[in-house]
Amino acid sequence: MHVHILGICGSFMGGIAAIAKAQGHIVTGSDQNVYPPMSTQLESLGITLTEGFDEAQFHPQPDVVIIGNALSRGNAAVEYVLNRNIPYISGPQWLLENVLQERWVIGVSGTHGKTTTSSMVAWLLEYAGLQPGFLIGGVPQNFGISARLGNSPFFVIEADEYDSAFFDKRSKFVHYHPQTLVINNLEFDHADIFADLAAIQTQFHHLVRTVPGNGLILSPKSNQAINETLGRGCWSAQQYAGTDWQYELIKSDGSAFKVRYAGKVVGEVYWDLLGLHNVQNGLMAIAAAHHAGVTLTDAIEGLAQFKNVKRRLEVRGKVNDITVYDDFAHHPTAIALTIQGLREKVGKQRIFAVLEPRSNTMKMGHHQEELVASWQTADQTLLLEPKGLSWSLSKLASTSNSPATCFSEVSQIIDYLIQHVRSGDNILIMSNGGFDNIHQRLLDALVLTMEKTDD
């Protein structure tokens, strides 16, 4: 079958392309921006890519077109498909019908931690020899790829609450029908498609309704929004982090902790990750893998060998003992947890938090008070103010109790850092986008400054 994918260069659609290719389909696709690393990853699989959405890409005509949720009515390719009655489907629906129907699906959902936790679960199953398939919205470094078909009944998927397609406004995850469901946390996000938290809770309850009676739902005991959602009705077994599953910190930075199950210590984890949020993610991953048949011994041993997903407190480089980190955090809760995790690691060393408020939710002005609170444990916060905001980020920064400064250009942020950082400092860059390649530009500037100093 010839499968053509519109919006192929996103991590989710690119993962579907890789899986479809592994099934033996002819796969082609197009996107507005075709560039590495996704373009090279897809081309290495023998997938033909087209830049843009003109009608020439439909010759020869594919058997089915998978349409990504970034495309809408008015797009030339979408209109061509509709006008000629070419069969089309959303990515999540295609995945259900062609991959997930006969699999033991482990879905990892929640506002934060989906990518990291799903990567952990996939790795724990792999460590136990179960060879799972997976589709994750990032690149787990234990695998080096974001998706694969797998050679077992198990399939791990990052269960995203964003909508499926322009013609299917249900959340992606209602298509996945998980046997094991993790709900990490639940907060208001995605203000571009959800009116309020209640609207998101409704979608999560649709997801809960799809878990079979012999399935398992894992969630934290103390999360009110999740408890309210489950209170609408739950027909599956439940286990909770905080009661059934517990952790006990061995090191305050989260780099070592004990695991308790049913009241008994079942092992200790020593790993490279930091932060309480990652300890919580790890606990959920152990619980999910255990439900799929992984022994607690294997799960705990495997977690110790987990390599974090790229862009999760990833060290991009170190110059003159100045460390530059990259992190995907873009919601106030994630920002606060990331900074706190780094603070536990570096102690009294200075942290410069560099933030691009890029998500649609923050651009629309939501979470302003929470955003200011999120960076207070940093020594200084540098903010890139997006163009066209309906509210003032500079005015918001002026209410901060810790030093916070706004800039209009990335180059200004780099210049400021070069003038103010010193040996032993930590620069934590947070964005869910490319941030105009600030990480490498900053490292290059630090090297150049050091060379001039040596001269």
TrEMBL record:
Domain spans labelled Mur ligase C-terminal: 311-433
Which one of the record's GO molecular function terms can you name?
UDP-N-acetylmuramate-L-alanyl-gamma-D-glutamyl-meso-2,6-diaminoheptanedioate ligase activity
**Which of UniProt's keywords are assigned here?**
ATP-binding, Cell cycle, Cell division, Cell shape, Cell wall biogenesis/degradation, Ligase, Magnesium, Nucleotide-binding, Peptidoglycan synthesis
Q: Which cofactors are named for this entry?
A: Mg(2+)
Q: Which domain of life is it from?
A: Bacteria
Query: What residues does the Mur ligase central domain cover?
Result: 108-289
Report the catalytic activity. Answer: UDP-N-acetyl-alpha-D-muramate + L-alanyl-gamma-D-glutamyl-meso-2,6-diaminopimelate + ATP = UDP-N-acetyl-alpha-D-muramoyl-L-alanyl-gamma-D-glutamyl-meso-2,6-diaminopimelate + ADP + phosphate + H(+)
Q: Where does ATP bind?
A: G110, T111, H112, G113, K114, T115, T116
User: Where does the Mur ligase N-terminal catalytic domain lie?
Assistant: 2-97
Q: Which Pfam families match?
A: Mur_ligase, Mur_ligase_C, Mur_ligase_M
Q: EC annotation?
A: 6.3.2.45
Pathway listed for it is:
Cell wall biogenesis; peptidoglycan recycling
Query: Which family does the record claim for this protein?
Result: Belongs to the MurCDEF family. Mpl subfamily.
Tell me the function of this protein: Reutilizes the intact tripeptide L-alanyl-gamma-D-glutamyl-meso-diaminopimelate by linking it to UDP-N-acetylmuramate.
Q: Which NCBIfam families match?
A: mpl
PANTHER family linked: UDP-N-ACETYLMURAMATE--L-ALANINE LIGASE-RELATED (PTHR43445), UDP-N-ACETYLMURAMATE--L-ALANYL-GAMMA-D-GLUTAMYL-MESO-2,6-DIAMINOHEPTANDIOATE LIGASE (PTHR43445:SF5)
The protein's name is UDP-N-acetylmuramate--L-alanyl-gamma-D-glutamyl-meso-2,6-diaminoheptandioate ligase
Q: Which organism is it from?
A: Alteromonas aquimaris
